[in-house]
Structure formats: C-alpha cells, structure tokens
Amino acid sequence: EEMLALAETVKVLNDDDALDLFKKTLPSASSSFIQLQVSTASQKAKALQMVRAAAQKSKRPQLDLIAMALNGKAIGFDKIIKMID
Q1: What is the largest CA-CA distance in the chain?
Q2: pLDDT tens track of the chain, all 85 residues?
C-alpha cells in the first residue's frame, strides 16, 4: 500500500502540470533574495532592550544584572548566556 502511494506521488511530481506549477513558483531572474548583515552591536542592543522590558514587567533583580552585563563593553554573549542558565 505504501509502495503504491509512493509510486503515485512520483507520478504526480513527474507530471508536466507539476513542472509548470514548479516553474511558476520559482522567482524570476529579476527578483532575488536579500541577505542582511547583522552586527554584534545591534544584536546586543536588541537583547538589552528585551531584557530591560522583561525586567520592568517582572521586577526580578537577576534581569537587572543581565541588563547591566549587556550594557557593559567587556562581557561577550558567552558569559551572559552562562548567567541566564
């Protein structure tokens, strides 16, 4: 029964209608993907913003400590992740 279902699936995928549909879904030559580069500083700023918002809502001093560490220049994300864990 499974082999029959697989055979039918392959048959549908190899059909000309499936090929036409596949070609329509591909982007044209004029369109392309945009790759964005994100800096560590922007990631750190976004993380700091999120931690500060969470700290205001929950009133947990641990989040204030993490925010302070994120705000500093010397500590990288590795140490902050350890603090969170």
Answers
A1: 63
A2: 888 888 888 887 777 777 777 777 766 655 566 667 777 778 888 888 888 888 888 888 888 878 877 777 665 666 666 766 6
Distance of alpha carbon 85 from alpha carbon 76, whole angstroms: 15
Structure tokens at 71: 């705000």
Query: 0.85 exceeded by the pTM?
Result: no
Residue 42, φ and ψ in degrees, nearest 5 = -70, -35
Q: Both tokens of residue 84?
A: 């969170």
Cβ-count burial of 55 within 10 angstroms (0-12 exposed, 13-18 middle, 19+ buried)? middle
Long-range Cβ contact pairs of 70-79 (< 8 A, separation 24 or more):
70/44, 77/40, 77/43, 77/44, 77/47
